[in-house]
Amino acid sequence: MEKSGTHKKIAYISNGYLYYVDLETGQHREISCEFGEKMKDRIVRTYENKEWRYRSNQQSIFSAGYSLWSGNQVNNPLHGIRAAISGAVYVPEEKAFLFSFEGEEANGLFSVDVNDFHEKRLFHSPHVQIRHLALSPTGKKIAYSCINTAGYENLFVLDKGTNQKVELTEGDSIDTAPSWSHDEQKILYQSAGIGRNAAGFEIALSSFEIFELDLIKHTSRVILSIPNKDLYLPRYSADGGRILAIAKPNQSQSTVRSIAKNMLSFILIPLRLLFALFEWLNFFVARYTGKPMLETNHYRRKLDLQQILLQGQNPGWEDDLDQDELDEEAEKTRAPRDWKLIEYDLKTAQWRVLVNGVSTYDIAAEDGSILYSDGRDIFKVNADGQNPERLATATFIHNVLWC
């Protein structure tokens, strides 16, 4: 395979594992989280020691329902164990990866050396959920987003030398996907406000916009917003004069309804009552037989998997995803062509489309060449989005890195 600039290796996250690829030899090295694998083994042993309890709970008067459906039952407590690498950055000076891990019992931040692949735990906690790591150009600081139990997400910076962290943003919003400027004085990030009702429940999410945080002046401003578009994963270009981001159609819904919609809602009340009754019956059927009365809507599932792809989550964590169906969908799930990688010129305030069908990407600091994925294949293009070359293929790719 042809090399891009000085880069001979790339990395990507697929199905919760980190893969390290040598572009010259084509060798793939799978990197799993040892901490996470031990956690999963512990959960499995706990289940096996208490398996008789689960079996006895199913041996009830409702067990006759097993004769109505064939196939494996899906109410196994081990189905959908959450344990995966959710984000990673490459540290050239240390020849190591820093990666975040999200698990059933605990989350954490780890490093792994690419020579001996020895894993080092930096910290772990059941209450801290880290995503979207960004290493500063000098390699001394790490910016990341942290998900709060209340549902909002804020930005932090961790000093690698002192292990001290500073909260950069706060408030009822989702602030994530940070990216450093070349002088380390500014950070780009995507942000969306959370709308809540009088009871405090989330009812709406605004469009994602690109913000620029000035670390010297301690100010933040909207630097890019496009009507009817959500903007994701902002990055400064190699020369710092432009901003790259993924733009996709906005799917947020307003809570303000028209008179026509209110009338339609009134007409549909009898059908919704019938649907509620069906769901009530369906709950007990699924609980005691392991199969719902109706199969899952595959079209809706496809949309959900596409959203998972863009948000950097790991499919298979949802309890209703059967592994066989997941594998089948993984072969087909790609970013739609209206998920566009765009480039915004800071001087002219104009933007243009570079590549269609992009779910994640990275920029080479040397020549600005772009490594991107549609969730299934990994490509490289030049700084203008031209001359695409496919480098690798996998499933549910949600993070790619030049190494």
In short:
The protein has six helices and 25 strands. The chain has 403 residues and is α+β, with helices and mostly antiparallel strands. It has a domain at 9-38 and 79-252 and 334-402: TolB, C-terminal domain (Neuraminidase, 6 Propeller).
Q: Count of DSSP E strands?
A: 25
Mean pLDDT: 81
Strand content: 35-45%
**Which range best describes the helical content: under 10%, 10-25%, 25-40%, 40-55%, 55-70% or over 70%?**
10-25%
Q: Predict the CATH topology of the domain at 9-38 and 79-252 and 334-402.
A: Neuraminidase
- CATH homolog superfamily of the domain at 9-38 and 79-252 and 334-402: TolB, C-terminal domain
CATH class of the domain at 9-38 and 79-252 and 334-402: Mainly Beta
The unreliable regions are 1-5, 56-75, 253-257, 297-303, 314-321
- Choose one word for the global shape: globular
Task: Provide a descriptive summary of the structure in words.
Strand 21 (360-363) and strand 22 form a beta hairpin. Helix content is 19%, strand content 39%. The chain has a domain at 9-38 and 79-252 and 334-402: Neuraminidase. The protein has helices spanning 34-49, 51-58, 259-267, 269-289, 298-311, 323-330, and strands spanning 9-14, 17-22, 28-31, 83-91, 96-103, 107-113, 119-125, 129-135, 141-147, 153-159, 165-167, 173-180, 186-196, 202-205, 209-214, 219-224, 229-236, 242-249, 340-345, 351-356, 360-363, 370-373, 377-381, 389-393, 397-402. The chain contains 6 helices and 25 strands. The radius of gyration is 23 Å and the shape is globular. Strands 12, 13, 14, 15 and 16 form a 5-stranded antiparallel β-sheet that branches. Strands 3-2-1-25 form a 4-stranded antiparallel β-sheet. The chain is an alpha+beta fold and 403 residues long.
